[in-house]
């Protein structure tokens, strides 16, 4: 029986195999080991086959095939799981353990089952190699270690690169064993938690307005018209605590704090402009300065009980002489002393830094075009300045050229119901074109004494017009005149400053300049425009509709990493197919793989073993054998009792 457990004769070329002893048979001491030289004839080899237990490929490799199938099923389960939850919110994952943990568990199973074909295949190869011809027993150890882990596989491949001929199929299997070490890293890298932005069905809204009208309160009879308290507060807020820009003063509806408005929109607003008119200031004697035509004067001496007149404001109401054509709803002028701090400004005419400075600012209704978005509850709208248009003052000749009536503008294109539409004027009133627009020339002609100019209006669709009603114009101008006209800062002798807090802050002890005045006027205009846009009950505001987005943690899948696992399944399937084909062509039909029992049975004589050589038969036979590892004749030997 010894011949059965040693080297079997091989007459079949095993494709894919090379070995370290291919040039010639070795004459090393391995020849002295208890194995027979295979010098049998072909007929004897064929006779020997009758004693070999021949098994079908399925029965021989069923567990390896099952492992490949199970590995494919596991990777399919991972793919399906991640496909279902890809880009889903993390909150939709209801399991008690994280999705990364589930993937890790499936990956561990995948890694375990794929180790079976590699281990069995490499273990089987060594017996196929030795069944072909005699080899060094060191090769047996080399291939056996490769079948038990990545380290042995790495040594096997290292020998391949060192020029020692190694089975190419075995190297392929060893490479797969090494690549399997990266399975965990690749699977975990395939799943990550990132931030996703989702569009929700509920919409976002920005207020916009075309017409500012009916924001006055009180009886219209006998001119008893009063500006609404909301607008009064808006003007005072613009004076005392001006908003930085329209973004912070606009009421936006956005439930999540993250919204986009992809289409630019137009809205009625208030625009400002300021100019430095210090060159018009005249210096009189006794440190006195005059702004001719505006009825404004300041002085830095204590010539009367009021003391120094440091700042004086006027409006167009104070202008002497004929009314000049103005396109603004209201304006104001500031004449002030330019000095440097309290001590310098208090200098009773002795200071050399005192000078008279003057500025004029106008506020005019306008149409602005904005792009807007809200991110993390911070709303920001940016004006497309190139599209800004100004409303012009108009009067209705039918009513009479007695007062300024309103501001209006007809546009060629506007934003309506979420879309931009083209606007065409009509010379006659129709069912659609119902709003009359008079030209700016009507107003300028009205300023001429005894003017008889008459002009027919053009008619527009209401959504193509922007207007500030006559009541709004009248009451706002009256309120501004009352607030700004004759506003002053006085410095009585040996007393503190006297004047409204807002004008004291604006003057800032003589440090006021054009930039501070311009910022003051901008804040005032912004506050007024914002009030127009947040008063839906009286203005009939339309809303710009946008998209609401929800930013939340979500599951991101990097499929490229998972394809690595799929490629491993395919590669191991190919490796197993090659092993099965080589095994089928080999004259040796045993099922020995990674078990150590075939090694032991070379020295242990088993009763009633007859011709069975399968691993299961050897295992059954070994169960009844008792062995001891003990020193015998100076060497440790495994002996049977």
From TrEMBL:
Keyword Transmembrane helix in record: yes
Transmembrane segments: 65-85, 97-125, 559-582
Region named Disordered: 21-47
Pfam families for this protein: DUF3176 (PF11374)
Ranges of Basic and acidic residues composition bias in the record: 37-47
Keyword Membrane belongs to the record: yes
Keyword tags: Membrane, Transmembrane, Transmembrane helix
InterPro entries to which the protein is assigned, alphabetical: DUF3176 (IPR021514)
Protein name (record): Metallopeptidase, catalytic domain protein
């Amino acid at each position: 029986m010894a011949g059965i457990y040693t080297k079997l004769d091989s007459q079949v070329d095993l494709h894919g195999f090379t070995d370290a002893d291919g040039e010639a048979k070795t004459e090393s001491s391995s020849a002295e080991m208890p194995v027979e030289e295979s010098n049998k004839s072909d007929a004897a080899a064929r006779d020997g086959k009758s004693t070999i237990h021949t098994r079908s490929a399925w029965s021989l490799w069923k567990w390896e095939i099952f492992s490949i199938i199970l590995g494919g099923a596991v990777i399919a389960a991972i793919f399906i799981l991640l496909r279902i939850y890809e880009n889903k919110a993390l909150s939709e994952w209801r399991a008690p353990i994280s999705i990364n943990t589930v993937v890790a568990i499936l990956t561990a199973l995948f890694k375990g089952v794929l180790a079976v074909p590699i281990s069995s295949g490499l273990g089987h190869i060594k017996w196929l190699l030795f069944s072909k011809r005699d080899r060094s027993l060191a090769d047996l150890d080399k291939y056996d270690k490769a079948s038990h882990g990545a380290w042995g596989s790495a040594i096997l491949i290292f020998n391949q690169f060192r020029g020692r001929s190694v089975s190419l199929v075995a190297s392929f299997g060893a490479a797969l064993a090494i690549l399997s070490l990266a399975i965990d890293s690749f699977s975990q890298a395939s799943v990550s938690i990132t931030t996703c932005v989702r569009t929700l069905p509920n919409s976002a809204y920005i207020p916009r307005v075309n017409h500012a009208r009916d924001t006055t309160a009180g009886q219209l009879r006998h001119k008893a018209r009063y500006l609404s308290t909301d607008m009064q507060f808006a003007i005072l807020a613009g004076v005392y605590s001006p908003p930085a820009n329209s973004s912070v003063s606009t009421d936006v509806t956005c439930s999540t704090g993250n919204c986009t408005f992809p289409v630019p929109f137009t809205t009625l607003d208030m625009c400002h402009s300021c100019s430095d008119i210090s060159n018009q200031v005249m210096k009189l004697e006794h440190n006195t300065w005059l702004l001719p035509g505006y009825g404004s004067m300041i002085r830095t001496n204590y010539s009367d009980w009021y003391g120094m007149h440091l700042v004086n404001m006027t409006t167009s109401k104070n202008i002497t002489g004929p009314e000049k054509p103005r396109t603004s709803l209201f304006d104001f002028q500031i004449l002030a002393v330019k000095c440097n701090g309290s001590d310098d400004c208090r200098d009773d005419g002795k200071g050399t830094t005192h000078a008279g400075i003057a500025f004029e600012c106008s506020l005019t209704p306008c149409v602005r075009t904005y792009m807007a978005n809200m991110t993390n509850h911070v709303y920001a709208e940016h004006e497309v300045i190139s599209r800004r248009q100004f409303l012009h003052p108009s009067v209705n000749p039918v009513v009479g050229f007695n007062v300024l009536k309103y501001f209006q503008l007809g546009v060629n294109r506007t934003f309506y119901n979420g879309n931009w539409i083209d606007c065409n004027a009509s010379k006659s009133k129709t069912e659609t074109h119902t709003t009359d627009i008079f030209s700016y020339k009507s107003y300028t002609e009205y300023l001429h004494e005894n003017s008889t100019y008459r002009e027919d209006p053009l008619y527009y669709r209401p959504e193509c017009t922007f207007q500030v009603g006559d009541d709004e114009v009248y009451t706002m101008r009256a309120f501004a005149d009352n607030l700004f006209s004759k506003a002053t800062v006085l410095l009585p002798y040996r007393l503190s400053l006297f004047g409204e807090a807002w004008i004291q802050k604006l003057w800032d002890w003589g440090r006021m300049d054009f930039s501070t005045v311009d910022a003051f006027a901008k804040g005032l205009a912004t506050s007024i425009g914002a009030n127009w846009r947040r008063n839906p009950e009286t203005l009939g505001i339309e809303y710009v509709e946008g998209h609401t987005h929800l930013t939340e943690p979500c599951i991101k899948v990097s499929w490229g990493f998972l394809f690595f696992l799929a490629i491993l399944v395919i590669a191991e399937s190919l490796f197993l197919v090659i092993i099965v084909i080589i095994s089928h062509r080999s004259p040796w039909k045993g099922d020995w793989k990674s078990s150590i029992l075939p090694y032991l049975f070379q020295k242990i004589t088993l009763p009633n073993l007859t011709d069975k050589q399968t691993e299961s038969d050897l295992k059954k036979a070994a169960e009844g054998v008792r062995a001891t590892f003990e020193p015998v004749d100076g060497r440790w030997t495994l002996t049977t009792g």
